[in-house]
Amino acid sequence: MAKFEPVLMANMHKADSHTLKVYEAGGGYRGLRKALKEMTPDQVTETVKASGLRGRGGAGFPTGLKWTFLPKNHPGPIYMCINADESEPGTFNNRYLMELDPHQVIEGIILSCYATKAVTAYLYIRVEYPLSRRRLQSAIDECYAAGLLGKNILGTSFSLDIFIHVGAAAYICGEETGLIESLEGKRAWPRIKPPFPAIEGVFRKPTVVNNIETAACVTQIIDRGADWFKTIGVPADPKNPRDPGSYGPKLYCLSGHVNKPGCYEAPLGITCRELINEYGEGIWKGRKGKAAIPGGISMGLLTEAEFDTPLDFAGPGKVGCLGLGTAAVVVMDETVNMVDFLHNSCRFFAHESCGQCTPCREGTHWSLTMLERIKAGKGRLKDLDLLLEIGDSIGIIPGTTICGLSDGAAWPIKNAIRKFRGDFEEYIKRTNPNGYMVTEPVPALLQLGAH
Amino acid sequence: MSTVARVLTDEMIEAIKAYIPRYPSKQAVTLPALHIVNDRLRYVPLQAIVEIAEILELAPAQVQDTLSFYGYFKQDKPHGEIRAWVCRSVSCALRGADELLEHMCHKAGLKPGETSANGKLTIEFGECLGACEMAPCILEGEELVADVTHEKADALLAKYK
Ligand SMILES: Cc1cc2nc3c(=O)[nH]c(=O)nc-3n(C[C@H](O)[C@H](O)[C@H](O)COP(=O)(O)O)c2cc1C
Ligand code: SF4
Fold first, then answer.
1. From the CA of A322, how far away is ligand 1's center (Å)?
2. Cα separation of B100 and B134, whole Å?
3. A338-442 architecture in CATH?
4. Which of these CATH numbers, 1.20.120.790, 3.40.50.410, 3.10.20.600, 3.40.50.9100, describes A246-333?
5. For tag attachment on chain A, is the N or C end more exposed, with fewer CB atoms within 10 Å?
6. Residue A1 above 80 pLDDT?
7. CA of A254 to the centre of ligand 2 (A)
8. pLDDT for A394-403, tens place per residue?
């Protein structure tokens, strides 16, 4: 494989990479100038559609196609929501973009709004990202001063405002309709879809929700062209007419037990093993790998034997994971016990379930309670079946909940127990030698200090 | 008539009102308003809810409902001058985050969520802080502390002694 030249990260190593001056010196806002002069909004949409770009926020929905779902000739206003809630455990690529190249993101937002005729963009950012927020705000201020935002951008009839809206430490605000509800000033309870945001989104108006990295990709596509974008990544499977392919560069987040954790740009489709070895310089402490999260904790687990899975949109699904998610790879070495991993995962989802759907609210809390019981040496083999029953029954996929948080809670349970059942059985038998075979209901959880 | 003293200053009220033109609904200013009050008072007492509701033409219960959804805003008493969020999510946990939080709480004599007696520091657990390449990490106010060893954590605690 020829050495891949970073595109999304090309600017980041420069001094003051976050300033307008440095961004423009590297060719920044060239695509926007070209688009506003030579392209209609529909041509921008068509270009993004032709590039095959799929959303980078987790669901991988084709971006150009999403834009075409907006009603035609709508009297407006149409809104853009930029999702910078980035709270999926393991994920930090949006932070890199916002801290080190905010103008690349803003250029993409302006282009996306031009294409969709959005008049206002709300950038919803998690409160835990103060530096990103400051960098974005000063970049936005620079844009207003330079005529790149506000009324009549670059002397055209196109006007746009971007407002930063700060969240309050709730993972569910990253789910697009949770984000919309939160932005409206309410509790972030995801909405039942349809209607999809394109038809009725924030303030009951047509709305597009896009991720930060998606916006950065739009910048590059308009500057370099759809054909360029399609030279990178994994082409659509000709045998599967419903596969849109996995095109373009991707910012992979690598963390956990590797020698060099970090954010790395690679073509979509790099394998987990290549990422660990070529970018992460291998598993730390000379140990062997045991498992890896392929794309944020919601996506489940790869076993070491599955490390050759390509990290494109189709890859992780082929080995029983939920999908590519946020492309955040978290590596676990051979010393990790999957009981600890699953406890951590269940604790996260029990904390973050918004509580609206009973299967999710109860399922996430009971799975945590059972993991606490197992960790306290009171586990029974039967608990593994109960956990799997929860895992198989909560989520959009089984059809019991409103949003995908619970699918994300279910996948680590299902993958951990089905792929590493030995770890759990060994732990339970060792720590509860007299009770592991018990199957009667546990009478008083509170007395065990379980929850 | 309420005899409770007003808690929102003129400056806070102006700051809140400045957000109103950004949105087609005043309710959308709820989170910004809560942040404005919280940034200054380090908590959002019930009386502030009533006053925010008045500015935004909402029922106080609507503002309270939103506040109570997010674990972020304290209501009973102010948090410390600095809030230290110790990440406990998977990437940090793999590099010792649970032990780190326990170490800090033990050393400071606090439980997560509690504030030191001198009012300077609140220790909290956080879910993924989005800095997994620097695990384990702590968000100390607005500063991210990377690769936190127990020694680094001790130095952090010492600042607020
Ligand atoms: C529980 C949950 C959390 C999510 N968190 C985020 C997030 O933090 N950032 C994000 O961009 N998308 C997140 N998403 C995906 C969004 O719902 C949405 O698909 C995405 O923002 C669309 O942008 P894109 O098409 O550019 O990817 C989340 C989804 C779910 C179900
Ligand atoms: S699935 Fe869970 S997080 Fe999503 S809406 Fe239902 S209760 Fe809330």
1. 14
2. 14
3. Up-down Bundle (1.20)
4. 3.10.20.600
5. N
6. no
7. 28
8. 999 999 999 9
Predicted confidence (pLDDT) per residue in B140-160, tens digit: 999 999 999 999 999 999 999
For the beta carbon of residue A74, count every other beta carbon within 10 angstroms.
Answer: 12
Give the closest ligand to the alpha carbon of residue A207: 1
Mention every residue, 6+ apart, whose C-beta is less than 8 A from residue A406: A349, A353, A357, A359, A360, A363, A364, A394, A395, A396, A400
Third-level CATH fold of A20-231: Rossmann fold (3.40.50)
Alpha-carbon distance A146 to A139, whole Å? 10
CB distance A360 to ligand 2 below 6 Å: yes
What atom in ligand 1 is closest to the CA of residue A177? 17
Sorted by where each begins, the domain ranges of chain B are: 10-69, 82-159
Mean pLDDT on A151-156: 97
- C-alpha–C-alpha distance, residues A92 and A105, integer Å: 15
Cβ neighbour number for residue A393 with a 10 Å cutoff: 15
CB of residue A355 inside a 6 A radius of ligand 2: yes
Which ligand approaches the C-alpha of residue A89 most closely? 1
Evaluate whether A146 touches A106 at the Cβ level (below 8 Å).
no
Q: Which CATH architecture has domain B82-159?
A: 3-Layer(aba) Sandwich (3.40)
Q: How far apart, in whole angstroms, are the C-alpha atoms of residue A367 and residue A354?
A: 16
Residue A184, token pair as written in the block: 């409206």
Residue among A249, A337, A257, A213 at smallest CA distance from A90? A257
A214 CA to centre of ligand 1 in angstroms: 11
Q: Answer yes or no: is pLDDT of A450 > 80.
A: no
Residue A328: name the closest of A283, A297, A369, A356 by CA: A297
Residue spans in chain A of domains classed CATH 1.20.1440.230: 338-442
d(CA B107, CA A261): 29
- Residue A208: strand, helix, or coil: strand
* Predicted ipTM of the assembly: 0.97
Out of B25, B71, B133, name the one closest to residue A263 (CB).
B133
- What is the C-alpha separation between A376 and A449, in angstroms, rounded? 9
